[in-house]
Amino acid sequence: MAESIHNLPIYAFTVEAYHKLVDVGILKEEDRVELIEGQIVQMTPIKSTHAACVDRLGDILRDLFIKKMIVRTQNPITLGKHSEPEPDLAIVAYQEDYYEDAHPIPNQVYLAIEVAKSTEQSDREIKIPLYAKYNIQEAWLVNLNKKEIEVYQKPTEIGYSSKTIYSLTDKLQFDYLKKPLAVKRVFRV
């Protein structure tokens, strides 16, 4: 059991129990929720600017990776026993079955990306540290408010030890990309 803000014990759902809630019809697959550290969290409705950025970035990334990988859009990744977040994009190891039997686990996730407008603070304070805790090697926060990409690297138990902010005039160049990614391509400018 985990503790709530008021120091009262609360039940921490496991990924298995979370899936059973769907199996028995308490939660529907179309419900906009995700499991974060044992708590079922309602997700913010997706607005058109957010959806467009996710789609645009997904298309860009599919063409840029050196290795054959899968770009998952708003699909779960399983992080330990109590978390199954749904990053806006996740770049995962290629599997012929496209993870039909189970969602990707941390060592299969190369990059988790959150696109944020109204969720900027919670993504930065909750989801990005969660990815670090489970040793996801890199996470991006695509900030729609500032038109910047925050790149987090070097995961530790309490967060990433490296953060670099890229603005509209910058290009992201990493070993896993065929060519640099101009930040302005991600945003409508």
Indicate the topology.
Blueprint: E1 2-3, E2 9-10, H1 15-23, E3 33-36, E4 39-42, H2 48-64, E5 69-73, E6 89-93, E7 109-116, H3 120-133, E8 138-143, E9 148-156, E10 159-166, E11 171-172, E12 181-182
Parallel strand pairs: 7-8
Antiparallel strand pairs: 1-2, 3-4, 5-6, 6-7, 8-9, 9-10, 11-12
Q: Give the overall pLDDT as a whole number.
A: 93
Q: How much β-strand is present in the residues?
A: 25-35%
Please tally the helical runs, counting DSSP H or I stretches of 4 or more residues: 3
The level of helicity is 10-25%
CATH architecture level-2 label: Alpha-Beta Complex
How would you portray this structure in words?
The longest helix has 17 residues. The protein starts with a strand and ends in a 7-residue tail after the last strand. The protein has 3 helices and 12 strands, in the order E-E-H-E-E-H-E-E-E-H-E-E-E-E-E. The strands form 4 sheets. A 6-stranded mixed β-sheet has the order 5-6-7-8-9-10. Strands 1-2 form a two-stranded antiparallel ribbon. A two-stranded antiparallel sheet has the order 3-4. The chain has a single domain, classed as tt1808, chain A, CATH 3.90.1570. With 189 residues, the protein is of the alpha+beta class. The protein is globular, with a radius of gyration of 17 Å.
